[in-house]
Each structure stands twice: as C-alpha cells, then as structure tokens.
C-alpha cells in the first residue's frame, strides 16, 4: 500500500454498527442516475415479434379433440416428429362465419437445427407441406423462407424474408407470392423504447399499406402499440408480477368492421406445469394447461367456452419428447 | 393478360413487338420454372432434410430413423 508523497490520507473506516442498525438490513446505496448512452442502445425485438409476450400469454394453441405428438431426436441437431390429431377444426365458411369440420390427420415432420441453418418440414396426410428455412448468410443478415405447398393449384403460399440486424436497429425486406412486397424497420430510441414502421404492397390487388409500432419495455412490464393503415389499432400490456406469474391484456380496434375486442389473461409458469387462461370481451373464456408428468412427457388440456355462440371446445393430448 | 399484351403490340409499330415477345417468353419461362420448383420442393424438401440430418455429426443409424424407440 505504498502511497506517494502528497497523497491525502484515506478517510477513516466507518464505526461498527451499533444497536438497531445491526437488526435492520444495511441501507442499499441509491443507484446513481446512469447517463443514457444514446450510441449504445440495445438491439430491439424484431418487428413481427413486437407483441410476442402478449401473444404467448393470450393466444395459446387451443384445440378440440385428441392430440398426440412424438418427437424423436436422432442426434443433437436432427429430429423427427410424428403427430396425430383427431377432432374438429374451425373452417371459415362463406355462409355463417366458421363451421366445425371433423378432421383426423397424421403429420410427419423433420427438423434440422444448426446454429447457422435451420430446416423444418411438416407433411400431412392430405399432401400439404409446411416448410421453414432459416439461414444466416452473415453474422447480421438472415434469410428466412416460409412456404405452404398444397396439391390444389393456386393455393400454395411462400414468403422470402431478408433480415438485417444492426447495432440498435433491425430492417427486414419481404417478398411473397401474389406479388407481395413488404419492408419494415425498427429502431431503439431509448434503452426502453423502440419505434418501428412497415410498408407493404400487394401486387395483384393493387393495395398498399403502412403501419407503425411502438414498444416500451422494462424488466417488469412491456407495453406495445400498433397502428396500421388498414384501420387496425392494437394495444397490449404485459406485467410480470413475479417470477412465476404474468398478467397480460390486449385491445384491438378494427375501423373497417367497427369491431372492438379486448381480452385479459394470465400466465402461470410453475415448476411442473404452465397454465394460461384468458377472458375475452366477446364472451370467450379459455384455459390451456401443460403439465409435465415425467421427463419429456407433457400432458395438455385445452378448454374454450364461447358464451355468446354457445360453443364449447375441449381438447386433451400428450406430447412426448422435447 | 397475354392476349391484351399481344393486341397492344399489334396496335403499335413493329419495333415494339420484339420487346413484347421477349417479355412474354421470359414470363412463360419463369412461370414454368416456378411450377417445376414447386413440384421439386413438394416432393424433395423432407427427403432433403433427412439426407442433411443423416449426414451430420454424430451420424445416426438407419435403424434409428425407422424405429419408434
């Protein structure tokens, strides 16, 4: 501890705590106001995942009937999946909204997951193929391809996305079938707030649109807002009440159809199960439970009651594998 | 759409018809290529994933591919 000449002596150490000070917890130093470094902002969440916390809590994959999924890993990167579904699916019909159609299908899937390349393919018994490819061209540029190919002509869909991740922004360019072109951009403006916008152009219908999004998040809450020129306003708010519980609420207004929907939901992530439930302004109450019975075996229960339409959907299933 | 393009070509001077026919043939070839690509992807995507997966390290056995365990 050699101190050079002219150095002032170190201040004397504080006296040992006495009396009540020993019983109370020590006073935590107030974190001094950190000056915001606007050149070092964090990278924002991708534009299409702006509302992902709210969607995860409020829109679980509710189903009706029996579902059995089996995923078999052959090695670290490659796995096959077999999935059986027997139940009803909602099919949009021109006459009266949606109708329930009893369906049963077997789906075979193969996944290849590499840090740089991800390939996921699923084929159904009626010949439909769902394909997803994600390839990292460089550290910052990613190519994503999503395609749904059917046997019927003119029903197939495909989309190419190029994503560029910058230091505190993300940009994406999309090309799809039916001459769909879109681009979006999102930028971190402060450490908590990010703003973004998107434009798209539909070639065959000569329609274009523009939309804006904002996302404010802290450790405990996430608030998002989205406005689109198609007349849709969507707001959402998710509060993380504790490590295991989060509450979410969502509001959507569609100007064209004068439709307003608001929902409120909860998400309990416990040691052996995950329980999500929601209550809707359309009179829908839903709950979704995933319970871990054993290593790799999950039991799933899904329930939805639509009081307005008197429609009841119950589903159960087992998922084996990761 | 092809017939409208061809009638416009006939209405204008003959120099326009050359560009019209190359545009039409490019569109025909690209449509043919997209159709073939769709069929190839439809039948070949899952086998492609399986081939890439079976060749990745550590190499899994063929019996693992077919058996349910």
UniProtKB/TrEMBL annotation, chain A:
Coiled-coil stretches noted in the UniProt entry, renumbered to this chain: none
One GO term (biological process): monoatomic ion transport
Subcellular location: Mitochondrion outer membrane
Signal peptide: none
InterPro entries: Porin_dom_sf, Porin_Euk/Tom40, Tom40
Membrane topology reported for the UniProt record: Multi-pass membrane protein
Claim: Cytoplasm is one of the keywords in the record: no
GO cellular component: mitochondrial outer membrane; pore complex
Listed Gene3D superfamilies: Porin
UniProt KW keywords: Acetylation, Ion transport, Membrane, Mitochondrion, Mitochondrion outer membrane, Porin, Protein transport, Receptor, Transmembrane, Transmembrane beta strand, Transport
Region (Disordered), start-end ranges: 1-22
One annotated GO molecular function: protein transmembrane transporter activity
Primary site of residence: mitochondrion
Purpose of the protein: Central component of the receptor complex responsible for the recognition and translocation of cytosolically synthesized mitochondrial preproteins. Together with TOM22 functions as the transit peptide receptor at the surface of the mitochondrion outer membrane and facilitates the movement of preproteins into the translocation pore. Directly involved in the pore formation.
Family: Belongs to the Tom40 family.
UniProt protein name: Mitochondrial import receptor subunit TOM40-1
TrEMBL record, chain B:
Main location, first listed in the record: mitochondrion
Locations listed in the record: Mitochondrion outer membrane
Pfam families noted in UniProt: Tom7 (PF08038)
Membrane topology: Single-pass membrane protein
Location of region: Disordered: 1-28
Keywords: Membrane, Mitochondrion, Mitochondrion outer membrane, Protein transport, Receptor, Transmembrane, Transmembrane helix, Transport
Entries under PANTHER family matching the protein: MITOCHONDRIAL IMPORT RECEPTOR SUBUNIT TOM7
The protein, known as: Mitochondrial import receptor subunit TOM7-1
Source organism: Elaeis guineensis var. tenera (Oil palm)
């Amino acid at each position: 501890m050699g101190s050079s000449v002219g150095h002032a002596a170190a201040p004397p150490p504080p006296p040992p705590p006495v009396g009540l000070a020993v019983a109370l917890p020590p006073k935590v130093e107030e974190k001094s106001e950190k000056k915001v470094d606007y050149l070092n902002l964090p990278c924002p969440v991708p534009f299409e995942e702006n509302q992902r916390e709210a969607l995860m809590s409020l829109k679980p994959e509710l189903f009706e009937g029996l579902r059995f999924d089996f995923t078999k890993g052959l090695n670290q990167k490659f796995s096959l999946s077999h999935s059986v579904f027997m139940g009803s699916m909602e099919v949009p019909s021109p006459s009266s909204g949606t109708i329930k159609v009893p369906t049963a299908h077997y789906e075979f899937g193969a996944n290849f997951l590499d840090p740089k390349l991800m390939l996921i393919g699923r084929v159904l018994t009626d010949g439909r193929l769902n394909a997803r490819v994600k390839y990292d061209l460089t550290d910052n540029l990613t190519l994503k391809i999503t395609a749904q190919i059917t046997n019927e002509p003119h029903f197939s869909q495909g989309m190419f996305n190029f994503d560029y991740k910058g230091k505190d922004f993300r940009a994406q360019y999309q090309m799809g079938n039916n001459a769909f072109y879109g681009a979006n951009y999102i930028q971190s403006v402060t450490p908590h707030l990010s703003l973004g916008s998107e434009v798209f152009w539909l070639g065959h219908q000569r329609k274009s649109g523009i939309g804006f999004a904002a996302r404010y998040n802290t450790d405990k809450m996430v608030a998002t807002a989205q406005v689109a020129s198609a007349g849709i306003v969507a707001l959402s708010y998710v509060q993380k009440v504790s490590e295991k519980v989060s509450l979410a609420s969502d509001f959507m207004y569609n100007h064209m159809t004068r439709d307003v929907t608001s929902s409120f939901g909860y998400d309990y992530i416990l040691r052996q199960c995950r329980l999500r439930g929601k209550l809707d302004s359309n009179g829908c109450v839903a709950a979704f439970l995933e319970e871990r019975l054993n290593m790799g075996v999950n039991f799933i229960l899904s329930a939805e009651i639509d009081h307005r339409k008197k429609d009841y959907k119950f589903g159960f299933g087992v998922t084996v594998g990761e | 759409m092809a017939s409208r393009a061809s009638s416009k070509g006939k209405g204008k001077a003959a120099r326009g018809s050359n560009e019209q026919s190359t545009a039409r043939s490019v569109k025909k070839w690209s449509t043919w290529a997209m159709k073939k690509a769709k069929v190839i992807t439809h039948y070949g995507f899952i086998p492609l994933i399986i081939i890439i997966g079976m060749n990745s390290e550590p190499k899994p056995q063929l019996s693992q591919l077919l058996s349910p365990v």
